[in-house]
Amino acid sequence: MKNFLWVIRAVLRAARWQSTGADRPVSFRVVLVFVAMAMASEAARQYFVIDGLAIFSLYGVNSIIATMAVFVAVTLLFVSRDRAIVVARLACLTVLLQWAVIAASRFSFEFRNLMPGIWTNSDKIIFAWLVVFVWWIGAVVAILRGAGIGPYQSPVFRAFWLSVVAGLAIIALPAYPTFIGGDFRLSSYNVWEWSRAKLFKPTDLDTSPVDTAAVELSQPHLLEAELNKLLPERKGTTDVYAIGVAGWSAQNVFIKELNGGLAALNKTLEADRGSVRLVNHRDTLEALPVASRTNFAAAVHAVARIMNKDEDVLVVFITSHGGPTGVALELGDAINVVLEPDHVASVLDREGIRNRVLIVSACYSGVFIKPLASPNSIVLTAADENSPSFGCSNERDWTYFGDAFFNQSLGEGVSLEGAFENAKVKISQWEARDDLPPSSPQGHFGASISEKLAAKLKLGNKVQALSEER
Prior knowledge:
Order of helices and strands: HHEHHHHEHHEHEHEEEEHEHEHHEH
Distance between the termini: 84 Å
Largest sheet: 6 strands, mixed
Number of helices: 15
Low-confidence stretches: 459-470
Radius of gyration: 27 Å
Shape: elongated
Strand content: 5-15%
Mean pLDDT: 86
Number of strands: 11
């Protein structure tokens, strides 16, 4: 404990460009503690600088670990002695810097107002970075004066090149954030994606701000047009209605998966009485209602008025990023909320919809199981409540779950349970191949609705067999 506090005092002195000698040894355990604190502080910085909803990504944790490993490796190259002391102090200095950035981002006072009025925002940002860089070099010089180098080695030279080489090595990493905000663009996060975006500019990329007022004004007629596609129920027949939600506007994979998933459900369950699509995507703002909590409740209400609640089934398919509290609904500045399991359950219960199938393709989507499980419900999720799911990169047409379940397992004559079990095997194989932690998809199959859908599937197979005989 004394050595731990000694490192902190030495770093506080270094932050004022005052050196502290290496008169105490630092154990490997103390070094690990400060390294872990530095990584946790970087994650905290990413979280607190985001305005609005922040979605956790496991890929970002790997990026932070890789970044810290590179930083430590470069430090060891430039330090000839007292290496444990220097690594511990630099890690602690990183913690101090990260929380200073967090405080600056959360402090209501606008520091840039102190700069000359003729400066552009770019000038002010560059100046701020230069100030931080000079301060950092001075602090590292103070650390190296007290420990790490010999009497004939220049602390200024070593501090400068240690910082430059470490910075360039970290910039070269294919980094990914631990927390993703609604305005996140991968092309602005690491040099590889930035270079790709500059060299291969997509013609259809629209980064203009979303007109929140225009979006709100357009919803009534867009929602009405979508709901008018629903057909009336047929007495004596188990009709299937569907509501699809693509929640995250910044990636195309979710709208692709929504369209493919609804097509697969229509083929398997004969959801031919109509489907309502709620989509957060810039390309559909003038054609489809957005995915918001209000529109979701309105869509469920409309289906409830048409369907026979004793006979018919409502399928709700949601695909987006997710977190421990639910699924993200994001559309720039216009929508930035979470669709929680309790909200989904309360909307369905309020409308009296008993027979329901909920399919959620999102990280941590297992949180939907308990609130929505019943004898009259089927709930399928891409992951358990403690795990992320994978495959939501922009160049893909499906996530891992969507590909395995809808694209490769679900088809005519295949039950939801059979398709889900087959999909779990495929996902497990893909995750093992890609050295990813298991997402552990979860499924609840209520006895009553499973029997109802089995009878519908059996009837459909019988009809198909008769038509083939003819």
